[in-house]
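Bench notes, afternoon.
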Amino acid sequence: MDLDDRVRDALPVNEPYDELIAQAYDCWLPPGAAYGDAPHYRSSIERGGGPALELGCGNGRLLLQYVAAGLDVDGIDSSADMLAICAGHAEALGLAVTLHHVDWTSFDLPRRYATIYNPAGSFALISDDEQTRQALTTWIRHLAPGGHLLVTMGVPRADFEADWEWHVRRSATRASDGVTFMVHEAMRCDVDAQLTHTLHRHELWDAHGQLITTFMRRHRLRWWTGEQMEQLLLESGAARVRRFGTDDEFIAVATAP
């Protein structure tokens, strides 16, 4: 059966994390929680010994704890709503943060950074090959000489046989008003094209369990193997590349000339 035999909708793909999506993300992944990836990026920033830049900082789940620890870290994101939430958290914590609302694949900032990192596998949201190369070139160009770019990637091997079965992906309740944000997910992988096609059904429930609203979003995620990622980084201007982790979950570290 062809990938689109049953699922042939014209929903927009990879829409920004705005409005209700930004609120939901902040509820699911709030700043201050103990995230497993936080120590690794922090140690990389500290070893770098200079300013750092977080690509796709969102609501500041990682960024704010690093700034609170006295590290010099800027953030960029393509969602103004996510950055507004991040700025609100920073103000509540008494932190001064530098945030940039830019297209994260083609920006031009005045600083050059010792460390640039892209956490949580969000690199997969760049599904176009040409735009992927543009993004990596932009990121490496913003490194100081000898600086490091860290890109997180995973191969979703466990989902290769998925066939649009629905399951609950995330659910959390906002303490301030009792609203619950829930998202259901269904997917199908195009292994040859290295793409995951995903449908997300979002629901908002009030404090009494009554449905407030529901809506659909579509994502197309592009994965790269470790060898492919290394080659991409070298072609994009890296002087050398190392890789840590497994074949299916890894961080590629590119060093600037």
